[in-house]
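ok so for the tutorial part 2 we go from a plain amino acid sequence to predicted C-alpha cells. step 1 is just haveing the sequence, like this:
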Amino acid sequence: MKKLYLFFFIATLGLESIEAQAPAGDAQYAFGQKIFEFFKSQKADLLVTAIDPKAKDDVKQLISTSILNALDKLKTLGDPSRMQMVNVLFDEAKKRILIPVLTGKKEFIMLILDNVIEQDGAIYLAGPVHVVHSEKEKKLTRARKTFMAKCFSCHGQFAEGVVGPNLTDDYWKYAKTDEEVKDIITNGRKGTVMMAFKDYMTAGEIDELMLYLSVLQGQRLRKGKPAEGNEVRLLRNMYLQ
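step 2 — the prediction. this is what the C-alpha cells look like for a chain of 241 residues:
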C-alpha cells in the first residue's frame, strides 16, 4: 500500500524546468531531469532505477525512506502540481545534486540528492534525499520578489534577457568576476540602460539578488536571448558557501 501511495503521489507532481535545456554532455543535469521524470510517472520504479544497484540493502532502505520523507515534506509545502524545477546544480566537492524548486506560493525550497555517483556509464543516487527550507531559501524567495519588482522589465521573468542581457548563461559582457557583477548592480554601467541600484536596494538586498542569480546559472533557455560578451563562469558557488 505504501508503494502504491508513493506512485500516486509521484504521479501528482508537476515539477518541471522553466524552458531549461542541459549543456551537452552534462550527465548530472540529465540525472536531475530524470529524477523529476520519475516523480511525474507511474511507470518508472524510482526505488530500483535511481538508487545505486551496488549499495547494501540497508543503504537502499535508507535512501528509499528518505525519498518517501522528501515527498511527504514537499506535500506540506504546497500543491506539488504547481511547483517548478528552476535549475539543476552540481556540487563537485560533495558530489551532490541540488535542485532549486519554486513552490506554488512562489517560495523557494532546495531538493538535495546526496552522494551522487557515476558507475557503469550511469549516474546513481547512493545517499539520501533532503528537502531544505532554510534561511538561504528564504533569501532566495525575497530576492526573486526584488528581481520581479526591479529587474524583470529589462531581464525578463526568468532572467532570459529582454533589453538587458541573458543572466542565466555562461556569457558576461562587462564582468569577469563576481565582484564586478555586484559593482554593476550597485553602481550601474555608463553607456547602457543598466542603472545604479544603490539608492533603490539595500546592500543586503543586493547580496540576496546575487544569491538568486547564482542558482539560475548554467541553464540553456530555449527562449533565452543569444549570448553576449565573453564566456566565463560566474556566481557558481554562492549557494554552497
